[in-house]
Write a structure and sequence with these properties.
- The chain has about 500 residues and is of the alpha+beta class.
- The protein has 3 domains: about 90 residues, Immunoglobulin-like; about 130 residues, no CATH class; about 150 residues, no CATH class.
- It is built from 18 helices and 12 strands.
- Strands 1, 2, 3, 4, 6, 11 and 12 form a 7-stranded antiparallel beta sheet that branches.
C-alpha cells in the first residue's frame, strides 16, 4: 500500500508530466511559438495575367494550387475590375475563372495569396497516381524517329544507376551535361516537346511512378518570373523532387507547388498574347497573430479544439481567467514557504486582478483609501449592534458609495486612472473590511497592519507574476501549463517544515 506522501508525489508528477508533454508537443512538433515576440515569415505570391482582347467575350481559366504539406494558405484574393470571378472544380483540381462579355485592348488580372510555413498543418497530401499504360505504348508520345535514341539512353542510364532516384538523377545529369551523349543530342535537337515532357516520358518508359510539378521557390523576394518545372519520382513510398537542371532539390529549399500533372496553368479564350508571371515578397509577422487565423486553427486537430475557436469576447475573458492559477501559485509559495499572513486566502489574487486594470500605484492608493474609510464607518456600525448579514450588507453599500464618490471626484480633478476603481471586487472589499474590523477588536491594530500589509505585499507579487507578458502568452496559448502548476501546488501543499518568518523568529535560540 503506497503511503499518502508518495501517493501525492505520484499524482503530482503524473499531472505535471502530462502538462509538460502537451507543452513539448505543441512547441517542438506543432511549431507553436513559446515566446511572445517570435515571428514567422509570411510569403505573398501574386499571379499576374496579361492578354489582349479582340472585342469579344473572354474566359480566363487559371490552375489554383492544391493543399500541400508544410504550407498553409492564410488568404486568397482576386483582383479583376469589371470581370466576373468564380472558382470551378475540375478533374485536375480547382481553377480560378474570370469572365467578361466584351473585352478590347490590353488587360491585366491579378490573383494573390498569402502563405506561411506551417509545422502544425495536417498532412493533406496523399499522392495516388495510377499509371496503367503498357510499356510498349509509353514511347508513343515521342516521335518515332527518336524512339531508338530514347531506348539506348534509358539502357545506358540504367547501368549507371541503382534505384529510381539515382536513375532519375543520372538521366537529368545527362540532359544537363555540357557535353551530352549522342542520344541526348538527338533528343534535344529533333524533339519539339519540353525537357520536362521528355524526361517524364523516359521515366515512365522505365516503369517509374512519376508526375510533373510546376511551382516556385519562395526563399527570396523576386518578381515577374515563370513557374519552375520539376519532376517528382516515387520510391519506397517517398516522393523526391528533381530540378531539371541540378537534380535533387535540397530539403531546406522552400518550394511551393502551384500545379501538378498535365493540366495547363492558364487558358484564355477570346483573347491573344496571353501570359502569366509571378512575384513573391516576404514579411515577418508575429506568430501569435498567425495562431488566431481560422484557416490555421481548422487545419490542426489540437488547435481546432482549443481556446482559439471561441468567440473573441470569450477569448478575452479567458486571457484574464487563466492568469489566476499563477496568482494562486504565488500565494501558496509566500504563505507556505515564506510564512506571510494575509487577510483571506485568495483575496490578494482578486486585488492583483484589479491592479492589472487600474495600474499598480493607483490601485494601491485606492485600496488603502477604501479600506481605511470603510474601517472607520464599520467601527460605527459595531456600536449599533447589527446582525452579521445586515452589517455586511451595510458595508457593501458603504463601499459602493465610496467608490462612486471617488470616481466622480477623480473625473472632476481630471485623474483618469482613478476612474478605473470600478474594477475592484466590491464584495471582497466589504468582507476584507469586516474581517479586519473583527481582527482589530480581537487582536489589536498591530495584527491588522501585519495581515493588511501582508495581503498587499502578496497582491503586488501576484500582480507582477500575472501581468508578465510571457506568463499571459503561455497561459492562453498553452493552457496545459495549468496542469504543471497543479502538480507543483500539490507538492508544495505537502510541505510541513519551517517557514522563513519562523526561522527568523527563532534565530535567537541558535545564538
Amino acid at each position: 500500500m503506497i503511503s499518502k506522501k508518495y501517493h501525492a508525489i505520484t499524482v503530482a508528477t503524473i499531472i505535471a508530466s502530462i502538462g509538460l508533454f502537451l507543452l513539448y508537443y505543441k512547441v517542438q512538433v506543432l511549431g507553436m511559438p513559446f515566446m511572445p515576440d517570435e515571428t514567422k515569415p509570411v510569403y505573398r505570391i501574386e499571379a499576374k495575367i496579361t492578354f489582349e482582347g479582340k472585342n469579344e467575350a473572354v474566359l480566363v481559366s487559371m490552375a489554383l494550387p492544391q493543399k500541400q504539406e508544410g504550407m498553409q494558405v492564410l488568404s486568397e484574393e482576386a483582383s479583376s475590375s469589371g470581370y466576373g470571378f468564380t472558382k470551378a472544380t475540375t478533374p485536375y483540381g480547382q481553377r480560378a475563372e474570370w469572365a467578361k462579355r466584351r473585352v478590347n485592348g490590353t488587360q491585366t488580372l491579378y490573383y494573390t495569396l498569402e502563405l506561411v510555413e506551417q509545422e502544425f498543418s495536417k498532412d493533406v497530401e496523399v499522392p495516388k497516381i495510377r499509371q496503367t499504360r503498357r510499356k510498349k505504348e509509353l514511347l508513343l508520345d515521342i516521335p518515332v524517329e527518336l524512339q531508338s535514341a530514347a531506348k539506348n539512353l534509358i539502357k545506358d542510364v540504367r547501368w549507371r544507376s541503382a534505384d529510381p532516384h539515382s536513375f532519375t538523377a543520372q538521366l537529368i545529369r545527362d540532359f544537363s551535361d555540357k557535353d551530352p551523349s549522342q542520344a541526348v543530342k538527338i533528343l534535344l535537337a529533333k524533339s519539339n516537346i519540353s525537357k520536362q515532357e521528355m524526361i517524364y516520358h523516359l521515366l515512365r518508359y522505365e516503369g517509374l511512378t512519376v508526375k510533373k510539378v510546376n511551382g516556385l521557390f519562395i526563399e527570396d523576394a523576386h518578381r515577374n518570373f515563370r513557374l519552375t518545372p520539376l519532376i517528382e519520382v516515387l520510391h519506397k513510398k517517398k516522393w523526391q523532387r528533381f530540378d531539371l537542371e541540378k537534380g535533387k532539390i535540397e530539403k531546406d529549399r522552400k518550394f511551393f507547388v502551384w500545379r501538378k500533372g498535365g493540366a495547363s496553368i492558364i487558358d484564355v479564350m477570346g483573347a491573344k498574347n496571353s501570359k502569366i508571371t509571378f512575384s513573391v515578397n516576404k514579411r515577418e509577422v508575429p506568430s501569435r497573430y498567425l495562431l488566431e487565423n481560422k484557416n490555421i486553427v481548422k487545419n490542426s486537430a489540437i488547435l481546432d479544439f482549443s481556446l482559439f475557436t471561441l468567440p473573441v469576447s470569450e477569448q478575452n475573458a479567458f486571457r484574464h481567467m487563466l492568469l489566476v492559477p499563477f496568482g494562486a501559485l504565488m500565494v501558496v509559495f509566500l504563505r507556505v514557504f515564506i510564512g506571510i499572513r494575509t487577510s483571506g486566502t485568495f483575496m490578494p489574487i482578486l486585488i492583483a486582478l484589479a491592479f492589472m486594470e487600474t495600474s499598480l500605484v493607483t490601485g494601491l492608493i485606492m485600496f488603502v483609501l477604501i479600506v481605511g474609510i470603510g474601517l472607520v464607518i464599520r467601527s460605527y456600525f459595531s456600536a449599533l449592534n447589527l446582525l452579521l448579514v445586515a452589517r455586511i450588507s451595510a458595508v457593501v453599500i458603504v463601499v459602493i458609495t465610496i467608490m462612486s464618490f471617488m470616481s466622480i471626484l477623480s473625473f472632476k480633478l481630471g485623474i483618469e486612472e482613478a476612474m478605473t476603481i470600478t474594477f475592484f471586487p466590491m464584495i471582497i472589499l466589504a468582507w476584507t473590511i469586516e474581517r479586519m474590523s473583527i481582527l482589530w477588536e480581537e487582536e489589536g491594530a498591530k495584527e491588522v497592519f501585519i495581515q493588511g500589509g501582508g495581503s498587499l505585499f502578496v497582491a503586488v507579487c501576484a500582480y507582477f507574476a500575472m501581468s508578465n507578458e510571457l506568463v499571459g502568452h503561455i497561459t492562453f496559448n498553452f493552457p496545459e501549463v495549468l496542469l504543471v502548476l497543479l502538480g507543483i501546488i500539490i507538492l508544495m501543499g505537502r510541505y510541513s517544515g519551517y517557514r522563513v518568518t519562523e526561522l527568523m523568529r527563532f534565530k535567537s535560540f541558535t545564538d
